[in-house]
Amino acid sequence: MHNESSPILNGATTVRFNQEAPPYNAFLNHSPYRILYRRVIYPSALHLLEATKFIDQHPEIGEIIRKIPRISDVFPAADGFQHLKSVDWDIISKQEEVLYLKVEQHPDLRSFLLDTGDAEIIYENTADAYWGSGPQNKGKNEFGKALMRVRERLQRPSTSWLA
């Protein structure tokens, strides 16, 4: 059972992490965790997130992105197809969906996330005022918020058909 007095947290009410801080940096999109989506394996969350921009209207572009061998090439490749991105694609909901799939499919990540209890999760990235904490901690922290929503979803008791 996961609780607020997790050995990872030691009673902390805030979890701060960055690209170099294990175990939480494993949540980042570029970490090497494969994800199964629609019966296809994506090498990373970044591959999947960028591919979702195109999968429904241009599956061939989604496939090109999925097959990119170097993670550092994923965003630049997807950026070249931005004019073909789905008009209804929403970055926040897709990021949350990708994170949910990632933690659902990797028990270690699920445990790390649940072990944060009800702590606020902050992605400390001073260079990113949207996904991270931003300069002087005035960023939106959308990545941390997405992780907290995923955690909340995982904490909800599942309803059983036997109930």
Automatic annotation (TrEMBL):
Residues 23-155 form the NADAR domain. InterPro entries: NADAR, YbiA-like_sf. It comes from Gymnopilus dilepis. SUPFAM superfamilies: YbiA-like. This is NADAR domain-containing protein.
